Amino acid sequence: MKKKERAVVLSQECIATDIYSMWIETPDIAAEAIPGQFITLYTKDADKLLPRPISLCEIDKENGRLRIVYRIAGAGTKEFSAMGEGDQIPVIGPLGNGFTRKEGKAVLIGGGIGIPPMLALAEALHAEGVEVSVVLGYRDSDLFLKEEFTRYASVYVSTEDGSVGTKGNVIDAIRANELEADTIYACGPMPMLRGVKAYAAEKKTEAQISMEERMACGIGACLGCVCQSTDVDGHSHVHNKRVCKDGPVFYAKDVTL
Q1: Is residue 228 helix, strand or coil?
Q2: What is the pTM of this model?
Q3: What separation, in Å, do the N-terminal and C-terminal C-alpha atoms of the chain show?
Q4: Contact 184, 165 (CB under 8 A)
C-alpha cells in the first residue's frame, strides 16, 4: 500500500555527469518496497504540482532507507541535486509493480538511467542464491554503478563508442559473451527494450521489462503514461496498460513496443 512520508536526506553525491545518488530515510515506504518499484518526490516549487517519479536503486529495510540514482532532466531533478544531509522531501511510495523473481539463471540488463533499478534486483536475487549475470549498456567509459554490481553478479559491459567492453549495445554483449538465462530482466530506453523483447522471443526465454515513460499522477488515475498491450485493459477497455499502475514491470510478451 502506497504511503506518503516526509523523507529525510541522509547523503547525496554526484557519481557521473548529471547523475546523482541519494540515500533517504523513509521507514514505512522502505518496509514495503521491492525491486522494480518506484517513488515520487515533490519539489518545493508550488508551481510544480506534479511529483517526479524515480526508481529504487537499493532497498535497506532493516534501517528504513532507500537509495535513488537519477539524472538531472529538468528543474525538479535539478532542485533535488542541490539537497544535502538533513533536508526533507515529501515522498509517495512504493508505487507500481516490481519484478517477479523466478528460479534458474538470470540475466539482468540495464541501459543508461535504467541501470540503477537493476542493482536492487541483483542484490535480491543474489541473496536467494540465484546465478546472476548483469549486462550494462553505456554511451562511453563513464561506468556509473558498475563496480557495485560485482558484489552480486558477473558483470559485462557494452559501450556505444567501444571504449570499454563490447562495442555496440547490450544484445551485442550478450551474444559476444554467450550468456544464457532462464529469465531476462531489463530496464532502459525503448530501443533497448525492443531489442530485448526480440532477443527473448528468438531464444524462447521469458523476459520481464521495466518501461520508462513520462508520468503525471504516478498512481494510475490520469492515463498519461499508457503503453499498448496485447490484451484489453480492464480499466480503460482498450489495448492499453498504465505504466505507473499496471507496470512499470511487464512481461515482454504482454506489451507492444
Answers
A1: strand
A2: 0.89
A3: 29
A4: no
Question: Mean pLDDT, the chain, as a whole number?
Answer: 88
User: pLDDT by residue (tens digit) across 126-136?
Assistant: 999 999 999 99
CA dist 171 and 179 (Å) reads: 10
Residues 6+ apart with CB under 8 A from 47: none
Cell of 87: 533536508
pLDDT tens digits along 212-247:
655 454 454 444 445 555 566 566 565 566 565 565
Alpha-carbon distances, residue 93 vs 28, 39, 219, 252 (angstroms)? 9, 5, 10, 24
Tell me the CA distances in angstroms from 124 to 36, 75, 119, 151, 257, one per residue in order.
11, 33, 9, 12, 28
Q: 152-205, pLDDT tens digit by residue?
A: 999 999 999 999 999 999 999 999 999 999 999 999 999 999 999 999 999 999
Q: What is the DSSP string of 81-123?
A: HT--TT-EEEEEEEESB-----SS-EEEEEEGGGSHHHHHHHH
Query: Which residues share a beta bridge with 134?
Result: 108, 155
Q: What are phi and psi of 13, to 5 degrees?
A: -150, 150
- Enter the C-alpha cell of residue 2: 502506497
Q: Coil, strand or helix: which one is 193?
A: helix
Q: What is the mean pLDDT of residues 25-54?
A: 89
The 3-class SS string of 60-73 reads: ECCCCEEEEEEECC
Residues near 71 by beta carbon (within 8 Å), at least 6 away in sequence: 18, 19, 20, 77, 113
